[in-house]
Known about the structure:
By secondary structure, the chain is of the alpha+beta class. Helices cover 55% and strands 13% of the residues.
Amino acid sequence: MTVFVPPLSDMRFVLRAVARADELAHLPGLEHATADLVDAVLEEAGRFAREVLAPLDAVGDREGARLENGVVRMPSGFAEAFAAYRAGGWMGAAFPEAIGGQDLPRTVATALSDLWNAANTAFEICPLLTRGAAEAILAHGTEAQRELYARRLVAGTWTGAMALTEPQAGTDLGAVRTRAEPANGKYRIVGQKQFISYADHDMAENTVHLVLARLPDAPEGSRGLSLFIVPKYLPDENGRLGPRNDWRVLKLEHKVGIHASPTCFVAYGEGGGALGELLGEPNRGLATIFTMINNARLAVGHEGLGLSERAYQAALAYARGRVQGRKGGEPVSILAWPDVRRMLVGMRAEIAAMRALCYWTATFVDRAARAVSPRERARATGRVALLTPIVKAWCTDLAQEITHTAIQVHGGMGYVEETGVARHWRDARILPIYEGTNGVQAMDLVGRKLALDDGRLPWLLFEELRGELATAPAELRPALRASLERLEQATRHLQAAEEEHRGAAARPYLRLFGHTLGAFLLARGAAAALSGAEDGAAWPGLARFFCAHVLPETQGLLASVLAGAEGLDPALLDA
């Protein structure tokens, strides 16, 4: 079992040379986010990830969360680690100082998530959800709700969870049946929720659920959902905790991976109704919770990045130490064999592309929130909307492949739990399902995002990529140009296609989009390294590998997009 080494050099290079995060210090409110400050933050975060979180990863996998007499208990060391995380102020890194945060860029917070997920994804799921709940309350809550709930979520003294789906609903939230009855200015919530991550635990003094439910006069379907703040302990206006609220965890799911992350089945209102407060407007709950969902979709992409990094490090360490075979009569490690190097270089190239996409997308989140010009804010908002399903789905699909490859590098030892590498594969398997399956993300991309702003969003991006061809290393330009042309052809085709065809072509289209963006961002890093402006010695080689070995797949992906619904005859399933 290998020791996690925070990839700080790679992270700094991507922040500066690819995402160009240094420019964010020119945005209002981020003047303090200098390169020196960011370096210091990453250095301390890397230490915390290496020394505190990473050693608990195997412990959490082995012990798992457990339900004892109605109370969820976390694995050994998790409560202490969360207390240290809270004391370090990490929860509030990107939140405003006015609410107790540190006002760092979201781009820096994305790099922190990269570290936390590589060290211990099951742990990071709790802060991920808490940050999302705080953002939703800050965006849609009353002043009293922001002060009472968001401030404590940002501090990490309370944590957050979202309680959306139900056994009969799945992804179709319009089928939610949980009820909310008015009760003296508040609401009594009655119903059951499934698959609620960190609904309960013993790491913080209170847990705050954001619950989708229906008011008595609500219309049917998703338009009749409202969102409610439902805490575990009912606080007074000063935050002092009072009686236990009327909800309880009925069971924990027994999962393939992320064993330390409690996935709860929750019953609300067995004693008359769990008390909650309305968050946002009545019957607008789905729009309100999407503040949290969109945050989580980007964050799940970051989970894919972190787990891929951890699996790659394990595979590389094993390959260096595993002596097998001879060359020139001398024993050699398996790194001597080209197929093993192909797997490892491929993993590193894809991780570099994933990291570049995640960090680059985060810069637009910062610009959307802080740019002076309304036009620039609108442009950045559109870019985030376009890239969110790609970050979520492309990065988590690659995480399946990279963690799988890490096992393959280990050979038979990869299938033995004592090496620890299978854990990363098991943990990663949930990611294409979380926060809307990757099929849902792909359909969102082709069905909604390609239509926004009269269909102009992707073409504004393609125009920028064409401009980057002139500065890309000359040897990469033919492959980059060919891939971009395929993406443009696929986009024109889908923007004119019927719904059935778009749905069938959505997954290959998203992968084609991700591969093309990844290649261009790798080329940007390669150009910076070759100019001597940044220290990224591996990037030219990684970009060459990606263009030579990954981009050729875009030919087949385009063919699949053009084929669309061909052959999808339901009768074939009954033959």
